[in-house]
Amino acid sequence: MISRRTGTLRVLGVDPGLTRCGVGVVDVAADRSASLVHVGVVRSDPGMPIEQRLAAIAAGIRAVVDEHGPAVIAVERVFAQHNRESVMGTAQASGIALLVAGERGLPAATHTPTEVKAAITGYGQADKRQVQTMVARVLRLDELPQPADAADALALALCHAWRGGAPAAASSSALTPAQRAWADAERLARR
Amino acid sequence: MISRRTGTLRVLGVDPGLTRCGVGVVDVAADRSASLVHVGVVRSDPGMPIEQRLAAIAAGIRAVVDEHGPAVIAVERVFAQHNRESVMGTAQASGIALLVAGERGLPAATHTPTEVKAAITGYGQADKRQVQTMVARVLRLDELPQPADAADALALALCHAWRGGAPAAASSSALTPAQRAWADAERLARR
């Protein structure tokens, strides 16, 4: 899963949704530093039949995988807290993202929103703006990643790499204060 | 959607599930009479990673589609009434079935369990045994279709054809009493 040539891990993060599916690809080094490879949103027309919408999402995710060659796909874990049509659509879109991984022979992982927020900001209840701000800082972007789905996809990808997708950081010098706090909390939790 | 040659509609019904995904193919004539084409269960190993399980389900459903050439795929509609992992897995499997339809250029439809029970037995609260018994009678099977997932898939396929996938029945003479009661109820509901 780690490129022998560069020592970096390339992760595709997917924020699943039927109408808007955020996709973000990052390269994460062993020292936890990261760089942006690709970010975008795969869309499907709400007026189309569900089977065509899911096919459009699958095609969009496959295109990103084939163009950027991630080593792993990280997908937001969906919870069925409400019996809403949108939750089921989100679950179906997440299934499509996981399927694409399976069909391309890539490992997949799921992370909860709380895990992502904690990994990115050090605080599991962080709001969207805090996550976007930290993603922009980590990736050295001049502007906050837009739209929110795209930012969430990048956050997922970073979360996955930092939570163990990449080997343990050799040094904590590249961490932001929030990342260092999270790394410390992780170490404490493992004791 | 109706075969010009035979006047029958071939429907693939899918009872979605991660571990066991029922698949049933039936031919339904304009007079609502039906015959069994194929029935089975696509399985995935609970010990495998989710992305490989979904890929196995997609491959299994595609194989049925490619071998039997249905004109439409009917999938049970999943509700998120409980925040359980199994519900999300079922939703993901249903998304895979719908995706296969979209990728093969086939229309898809979803029906609720209540709609299926009502269409098959005339009673939306029918139990599994009643549904299996009626499916066996309609398809002139010597034994009840087994396992339950397979029977549910056949019921879904029949439900879809009877609820409007096939043109309105020219005559009600081929209907069982339960089917006739349902057809009458449908007519009343439309007034």
UniProtKB/TrEMBL annotation, chains A, B:
Organism field: Microbacterium fluvii
UniProt-listed InterPro entries: RNaseH-like_sf, RNaseH_sf, X-over_junc_endoDNase_Mg_BS, X-over_junc_endoDNase_RuvC
Subunit structure: Homodimer which binds Holliday junction (HJ) DNA. The HJ becomes 2-fold symmetrical on binding to RuvC with unstacked arms; it has a different conformation from HJ DNA in complex with RuvA. In the full resolvosome a probable DNA-RuvA(4)-RuvB(12)-RuvC(2) complex forms which resolves the HJ.
Cofactors, names only: Mg(2+)
Annotated catalysed reactions: Endonucleolytic cleavage at a junction such as a reciprocal single-stranded crossover between two homologous DNA duplexes (Holliday junction)
UniProt feature coiled coil, ranges: none
E.C. designation(s): 3.1.21.10
Protein name according to UniProt: Crossover junction endodeoxyribonuclease RuvC
Enzyme class: hydrolase
Function: The RuvA-RuvB-RuvC complex processes Holliday junction (HJ) DNA during genetic recombination and DNA repair. Endonuclease that resolves HJ intermediates. Cleaves cruciform DNA by making single-stranded nicks across the HJ at symmetrical positions within the homologous arms, yielding a 5'-phosphate and a 3'-hydroxyl group; requires a central core of homology in the junction. The consensus cleavage sequence is 5'-(A/T)TT(C/G)-3'. Cleavage occurs on the 3'-side of the TT dinucleotide at the point of strand exchange.
Family of the protein in this entry: Belongs to the RuvC family.
Residues making up the signal peptide according to the UniProt record: none
Cofactor note: Binds 2 Mg(2+) ion per subunit.
Positions of Mg(2+) 2 binding: E76
Keyword tags: Cytoplasm, DNA damage, DNA recombination, DNA repair, DNA-binding, Endonuclease, Hydrolase, Magnesium, Metal-binding, Nuclease
NCBIfam families assigned: ruvC
